[in-house]
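hey so u asked for the seq, here:
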Amino acid sequence: MNTIELENYTIAFQEQAYIELNLLINTKAYSSIYILVDSNTQENCSKFLSEKMEANVRIEWIEIEPGEEFKTIATCSEIWKTLSETGADRKSLLINLGGGIVTDIGGFVASSFKRGIDFVHIPTTLLGMVDAAIGGKNGVNLDSLKNQIGIIRPPQMVVVDVGYLSTLPSKEMRSGLAEMLKHGLIANEEYLDNFKDLSQFQVDKLPELIRDSIQIKTKIAEEDPFENGLRMALNFGHTLGHAIESYQMESPSKTKLLHGEAVAIGMILALKLSVDILQFSEEKCDAASQLISQYFKPVTFTSEDVSKVKTYLKHDKKNTGGTINFVLLEKIGQPKLNCKVSDDQINKAFAYYKGLD
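ran it, structure tokens below
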């Protein structure tokens, strides 16, 4: 597959990606290379990357714990200390080999260490490939609040190799599919149609679908790199999705949800809100909600749960002046930003979600 050339970085695929990675390493003449992994990617992916890299400089591996609960400033602090203590300088390169948590943390660490060193993302999850590693967003959580601390700064390049996906459990694969479904809903109904019949879904089409999904996201992100307008459309399903993810993470009695699992719920809620507020087609709402439900098991929310989820909405990054702003749909492929939603409308959306069981 052809490399995607963007204004500030490139996204390369399969074997060609390693050719370009090695060219970057040798052209830039880095003083040292650091590779950030979590314990899962250290075990399953590090050997493969080592075999593909050609570098004549010192290589150091930094391993962190896996999981959203470690996506914190404390983790960053440990990485910064390791970089400093082992002699990293402004000509060092940080390669982030892992899922969205590793690339988010690694990008933020690199962007702030010595006021910024180069970094490369090698996402190993579907979510990382189509979302987290694309677009230049890097950052960490503040307690259970998602992505409150961070910076927008692009990597030197992104390496996309679908071979890494063979190491993933099915739950992680579905998490990435949520973002691909979102791309179809906000940008391209024809792309969305690829996922309509689960029984006919062809795995060999996945590399092409991943590239198409990346192109949808990069087109939006390149037009609005700092999220001043159009890029907010990528937050469809994320306002309530992030709130649900944070609530489930912070509640000891609740099952933690992967990012894509929470966003899938958020998208169904946003579809129903789109019907009530923007007269989005009820038929399209039902069809899209059923499509999402094919991939994701239902989660039960009591009225008390819903009330608590709503308290997290005030922390959403799209909010301005204390007003909670939603991204909704007028039509598939036609998102509308900064929509105001009432408490009662949110309750009705949860009732609609419950009725899909």
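The radius of gyration is 20 Å. The first helix runs from residue 14 to 28.
lmk if thats what u needed
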